[in-house]
């Protein structure tokens, strides 16, 4: 482990193996009391998979354009045959659960997750140390255990983690609205037509392949309203062919108000990736004990027919998650990538972040899954002149930096080392970041001053990397469209091919810095944009016409 900022640890104590997963309860959650012993819970058991090293090797081969294996993606069945837990693992874990009277379990096609129902009393017996409480925030209620839990030592080597105990949903990305004055003759905010002008998409750049699809995923009680989407397309989609309805909703849409985040995501992936079938994953969770992000990952392991591009605006601090949890989630990302699926995550809206270590010492705070080596992470930019379609500069909120957990992947070593050398004079002190960690973001797009329709109201000046991510996702969907029409495989995991472009077909962003710790040493300044790749805007923003030329062959 590469961490400068200490992570969770696992400890063997005789017959039991303690998982010291983070029990940090965010301050915006309030604990209201122990749950009744008869309270029904649903916990997720992540069984140890086989052949993860081989899975990674296959992913890199099918994602490398110089490999003869490029584009030879696997089916869900082939992935299942590769990673399925051993018979011994399945037998021991099921036997352990059954010995506690737990029989109401469901699994997935790959057999590496078990989701089981039980009472809280049974759960606390099964997992010594756990104590389940109800927590509330802004009308949302979840059940979690804030204490480290343990499993019997005979079982621990067959489990990666148990989901539904510790992780509370973080606050959504800080999508913000900020009113600004307009000037005659200048544009009044980012709309689909402004994006098409800046990124060189014509009115003819719309989808037409029948077997193409894209998706957005929401985990934080966020819903969209079909009427908002129709109104948005009526207002802003007149210059290009488009769809005005989501084709498929996976999960249950809530009956409350539309969320600004959900409205933003679906409106901009469908106006950039125009005329392409779109799915909306919404995960409110059937039980208060479920973890919505984990539920989405389980779904990906159980569906043979999935959209080719998924954009997700979700993240948590690396140091709030156990390493075993993140490593397993990485394996799930690899499972998606080898199937030809592209996963795009927002880089976050906290710049380099800041973790207070005590005694006046701080370090930057990377975010996961943005820091995963197996996803494409999208940062944010602003127009130099917010009222004109000009060149772009750094959006100061754009998340970026270096992982404290994951090593720098080979595909980015050359680019990142070049940045560290050329920007050496302007770098923050090395005590603040892990110079050998996975660096992100990989790419960026405008993240400032968007128009969104939510609850039938047009809202201006919406900002956040939650905006840039579906925009990039929509463009990748259009490129997939051209590839599918030519009989070529989908892009899948983009990063190895993206880094081999070395900035070609991208608008380099070289101005501006993002925010970080407010202390005497760095004074709120994180990393700064620089020529070629940098940890604020990645390789820059897409020149779609050129990018499609490079990636659709």
UniProtKB/TrEMBL annotation:
<dbReference type="GO" id="GO:0005764">
    <property type="term" value="C:lysosome"/>
</dbReference>
<dbReference type="GO" id="GO:0007417">
    <property type="term" value="P:central nervous system development"/>
</dbReference>
<keyword id="KW-0865">Zymogen</keyword>
<feature type="active site" description="Charge relay system">
    <location>
        <position position="466"/>
    </location>
</feature>
<keyword id="KW-0458">Lysosome</keyword>
<dbReference type="InterPro" id="IPR036852">
    <property type="entry name" value="Peptidase_S8/S53_dom_sf"/>
</dbReference>
<dbReference type="InterPro" id="IPR015366">
    <property type="entry name" value="S53_propep"/>
</dbReference>
<keyword id="KW-0378">Hydrolase</keyword>
<feature type="domain" description="Peptidase S53">
    <location>
        <begin position="189"/>
        <end position="553"/>
    </location>
</feature>
<protein>
    <recommendedName>
        <fullName>Tripeptidyl-peptidase 1</fullName>
        <ecNumber>3.4.14.9</ecNumber>
    </recommendedName>
</protein>
<dbReference type="GO" id="GO:0008240">
    <property type="term" value="F:tripeptidyl-peptidase activity"/>
</dbReference>
<dbReference type="InterPro" id="IPR030400">
    <property type="entry name" value="Sedolisin_dom"/>
</dbReference>
<feature type="active site" description="Charge relay system">
    <location>
        <position position="265"/>
    </location>
</feature>
<keyword id="KW-0106">Calcium</keyword>
<keyword id="KW-0479">Metal-binding</keyword>
<keyword id="KW-0325">Glycoprotein</keyword>
<keyword id="KW-1015">Disulfide bond</keyword>
<dbReference type="Pfam" id="PF09286">
    <property type="entry name" value="Pro-kuma_activ"/>
</dbReference>
<comment type="function">
    <text>Lysosomal serine protease with tripeptidyl-peptidase I activity. May act as a non-specific lysosomal peptidase which generates tripeptides from the breakdown products produced by lysosomal proteinases. Requires substrates with an unsubstituted N-terminus.</text>
</comment>
<keyword id="KW-0720">Serine protease</keyword>
<keyword id="KW-0068">Autocatalytic cleavage</keyword>
<dbReference type="GO" id="GO:0046872">
    <property type="term" value="F:metal ion binding"/>
</dbReference>
<feature type="active site" description="Charge relay system">
    <location>
        <position position="261"/>
    </location>
</feature>
<dbReference type="InterPro" id="IPR050819">
    <property type="entry name" value="Tripeptidyl-peptidase_I"/>
</dbReference>
<dbReference type="GO" id="GO:0004252">
    <property type="term" value="F:serine-type endopeptidase activity"/>
</dbReference>
<dbReference type="GO" id="GO:0006508">
    <property type="term" value="P:proteolysis"/>
</dbReference>
<keyword id="KW-0645">Protease</keyword>
<keyword id="KW-0732">Signal</keyword>
